[in-house]
Every structure is written in C-alpha cells, then in structure tokens.
Predict the 3D structure of the following.
Amino acid sequence: RSRRDAGLPVFSIAVQGDSIHLAFEPDWINRQPLLLADLQQEQDIWKKLGATLDFE
C-alpha cells in the first residue's frame, strides 16, 4: 500500500476537563484505517490515565 497525501480534513476539537472530543467530516475517519487504529489505541491509553478521548 502506498502512502499519499490525503490533505487535512475539516475537524473540530472540544476540551472539557480531562476529556477531548474530536469531530471529523462525516465518514472521513472510517476512510483512514491507520489513523482510526491509532486513535483507538490512544483511547485505551487515555482511559488508563483517567482521561477520555473520543472521536466521530
């Protein structure tokens, strides 16, 4: 699989206390399987630290 520059998506970040919420363009994250896997791993790490990372 070759890498190509997919460009930056439109997204927003909301922070509240120990929680961060990332909102991407509809369905964009589902077309980025490597990033999706990375974010899911990050969720587990954050949870162990008592923080929350979520995304859509």
